[in-house]
């Protein structure tokens, strides 16, 4: 018997609201089984059609995203545009294309797969949400969130009462207007945080305000939306007991969330050893629980994705549970199945079906009034709290953006016939236009670095001799701690020359939506936090307790994307008035001297800090375990300062000048000059360098642990020979980052530079040919004006123990 030519047949039947399509699917036509070799059509079977649909949808959406990415558009916009292109508006008008790739039976299959992926995407969005964030909202965020909800709601309700007086509306249109008003008042937490992350401003000032404000806004919206849903059910079905059912189910969900799901997930997170992934049974049990929550919410008339979303909120964000689950399922569900969801959404939308009549115009006016009301509400409340005008405009633009949560509500309203096809199309198109305009506007006009770039730059050389040295150290992992503590000990904090230390524990944002920047208070004991922060804090606290010259020890934690982590570093540096920031190098060496780990994300952080830092920066290349270095407190430590000239070298020498007072440190200053130096001594830079060296030698002439060497070089070859000689008897080398590129002893070294953030000399010393640790110092970012020479202090005696 020859196979059938189609896997399903369809026809129209009377439906609940209108004529609907009835699909009869053959159960034995799933896989083609090589039917093409017999001259058959593989698209007559369900599985080949589904695979072709997914391939086309993902390919087109990715292509569109690549074209829109320079305009700072989101993947969601590309996926919606893909659905519009292959839907009724364009390619769907080609009859053969629709019959082959999107027949009624084939659409049912891809819709089922898309809904499954959409459920798990909402589940991951729930995991990203931290419920305790609501407790951290500030007064300004609460006000911005409330005004951003109340004003568009008020404007919309006012227009809903006025418009029926201007023209005749049927009852369904009037109810649609009320729904539109509520939706336009929403600023969804997952949507806003996703946008902030895409624009790399999640941990900026307006990013943090927007994160807190949209959480307040979303709570208000859900309350109003629940009331609307209950009242709509009562009016539509004339059943007052619906109120009790909603309250009962709502109470049950709250109890399950608060007293069953959340405690279970918290216990699971605490029982997993740090750095250990979830077991397969634990992972599958969580996935099964998410599916079960979706099943029960589907039973009571709420989309299954909402149940999975609520259960996701119960899971602690971040490692070890939240980030692991997202890592396991996010790529498949978000990258493959989610585009199909929005493609299906666009398939049913026909742009050419929008009627150009007065009623359509007024519905669009209601939609735009909602956006304008939200923009005005956020803008006015931001200005009230003295937010700069440009920042307030950017914040208002951010809060007007819509995304996946709003589209979910649009689909629900369309499927429940609470809005018609025309209103549905208008909502989607307006959302694409407004969000498409707001994203590049925010990206172009908002610069997080304005907050600290306008502050006076700090450095060691130009610091107040009567104040303490303020050092901020950044820690990415526990391996950074020993060498950083050695460096702090070498800085020789004493009662007459005190030092304040600020430790910033840096962690990548993973498995959570909101960035974190907070101060940690350790009162003689460790907190209950289960993370590497405990061990890091314990090590620095022990160092502080044994060094009397440490006047302040403060701990901070930053959880942010690597792309914007530099914002937190510079922000803390401004707030604590740091003189220098110490950054770990992105390469980690093995015990045999070879490079074991290369972390490009940390390198990006270092490069951005160097460009925007409000103070001096030191990049610490840690090879202490390679050279076999012990603690400075227990062994002799040999430090070499390579001095070529320039502001950065002067800053490096000023820092090293503090170290010569430590009894266990031997310091060697190598002054590398070139033939002809002195003939241009009238130049300001050379004059300052000469004075710096002269005063350093005068202050250390009686110190038997300080040595001075002057090396003369003709070209870069001689410079390389001098660098090779530093290997003998050196535990750490300190050098400036930037040097005169026209100097003969530097020219040619840039041809082999692999790490420009270390400078020409630092890059060469960071290669595997050398085994000592390295500190590369930059006084101020490139392009920043240096203080006038009249204010220059060379080597201040108050910062040294040898005067």
TrEMBL record:
Give the similarity note. Belongs to the monovalent cation:proton antiporter 2 (CPA2) transporter (TC 2.A.37) family. CHX (TC 2.A.37.4) subfamily.
Q: Which GO terms describe its cellular component?
A: endomembrane system; membrane
What name does UniProt use for this protein? OLC1v1006369C1
Q: What is the lineage of its organism?
A: Eukaryota, Viridiplantae, Streptophyta, Embryophyta, Tracheophyta
Q: Where in the cell is it found?
A: Membrane
Domain Cation/H(+) antiporter C-terminal, residue spans: 639-779
Species annotation: Oldenlandia corymbosa var. corymbosa
Q: How does it sit in the membrane?
A: Multi-pass membrane protein
The record lists the membrane-crossing segments as 45-68, 80-102, 108-129, 141-164, 209-231, 243-262, 283-315, 361-384, 390-413, 425-446
Q: Where is the Cation/H(+) antiporter central domain?
A: 501-625
Provide the GO biological process annotations.
Answer: potassium ion transport; proton transmembrane transport; regulation of pH
Q: Does the keyword Protease apply?
A: no
> For the Cation/H+ exchanger transmembrane domain, which residue ranges apply?
62-438
Q: Which UniProt keywords apply?
A: Ion transport, Membrane, Potassium, Potassium transport, Transmembrane, Transmembrane helix, Transport
